[in-house]
Design a protein that fits this description.
This protein is an alpha+beta fold and 154 residues long. It has one domain. 37% of the residues lie in helices and 27% in strands. The chain has five helices and seven strands; from the N terminus they run αβββαββββααα. Strands 1, 2, 3, 4, 5, 6 and 7 form a seven-stranded mixed sheet that branches. Helix 1 crosses helix 2, helix 1 packs antiparallel against helix 5 and helix 2 crosses helix 3. The chain is globular. The mean pLDDT is 93.
């Protein structure tokens, strides 16, 4: 885990903590550990191979999804505008587009962006849908400590 990866991970964990403490009137993207990401299909389209994808404006995501968003990457959803215009539809996403325009599965890309090793993923399973915010904070503290960092949340 490099410094920039640590900062992405810490920012995403801070968001989880903030969401857990919020009295809800949702503003922005809310935490939902049970989904990689949810949102509304926007108007931007990108071709990846022979498949057209639409950018998704996120409304909820898990820790992995938030890591992707913190890093500045976008959720995408496959669309076929020839059949109907899906703009505005609410969808659950599994994919994002990385900074080089490659289609990536959200958990794989999140692990890479946060500098999580296979051992981190195996030992702590930080993207499991059953984790509470408290679980995620505890897991993040252990992972960052193993990489020589101290997680600081406010």
């Amino acid at each position: 885990m490099e410094q920039k990866q640590f900062e992405v991970f810490q920012t995403a964990i801070q968001w989880v903590k903030d969401e857990a403490e919020r009295d809800y009137a949702p503003i922005g993207v809310r935490h939902d550990q049970a989904t990689w990401g949810n949102g509304e299909i926007g108007t931007d389209r990108v071709m990846i191979g022979s498949v057209k994808y639409a950018a998704v404006c996120p409304s909820a995501c898990c820790l992995a999804g938030n890591i992707v968003l913190v890093a500045g990457e976008r959720f995408v959803y496959p669309v076929n505008d020839d059949l109907f215009d899906p703009t505005g539809a609410c969808v659950t996403v599994d994919y994002c587009v990385d900074d080089e325009g490659h289609l990536r599965q959200i958990p794989d890309r999140a692990a890479e962006l946060a500098g999580l090793t296979d051992a981190d993923l195996w030992d702590y399973n930080p993207f499991a849908p059953s984790h509470s915010a408290e679980d995620l904070i505890s897991i993040a503290e252990k992972i960052t400590k193993q990489h020589g960092y101290t997680l600081v949340l406010v």
